[in-house]
Amino acid sequence: MCENETLKQVLLENLKKVIDPETGADVIRMRLVQDLTVTEDGDANYIFRPSSFVCPIALTLVMEIIEAVKATPGVSHQQVTVVDYAGAEELNKILASLNL
């Protein structure tokens, strides 16, 4: 699978618009979105790592991230995996059921 670098850069710029309300910093600067890859077909895969194991706004942030990815022209599908979070297993099941 080849990676679509142009789409990845556009996606990163869109993700910089997602701001953590606790810190005022964007999710890219905070490294909350990691290991982003984008295929030539527009499939985006990434990891969401909340800033703390018990982050009270993890669900809100991941949904904002998903919406930013979805709003990026050229992205056809996305898969997000939540890690290092107390509710990661549950949240990953919910996200998988959304058919992103």
Output the CATH class name: Alpha Beta
What percent strand? 15-25%
What is the helix fraction of residues, given as a range?
A: 25-40%
The unreliable regions are: none
Strand order across the biggest sheet?
Answer: 1-2-3
Structural class based on helices, strands and sheet pairing: alpha+beta
Shape: globular
CATH homologous superfamily classification: Fe-S cluster assembly (FSCA)
For this structure, the CATH topology is GMP Synthetase, Chain A, domain 3
Largest beta-sheet characterization: 3 strands, mixed
Could you tell me the number of beta strands? 3
Nearest-integer average pLDDT:
94
Briefly characterize the structure.
The chain has 100 residues and is of the alpha+beta class. It is built from three helices and three strands, in the order αββαβα.
Give a structural overview.
- By secondary structure, this protein is α+β, with helices and mostly antiparallel strands.
- It has three helices and three strands, in the order αββαβα.
- It has a single domain, classed as GMP Synthetase, Chain A, domain 3.
- It has helices at 5-15, 58-70, 88-97, and strands at 33-38, 43-48, 77-82.
- A three-stranded mixed sheet has the order 1-2-3.
- Strand 2, helix 2 and strand 3 (77-82) form a beta-alpha-beta unit.
- It starts with a helix and ends with a helix.
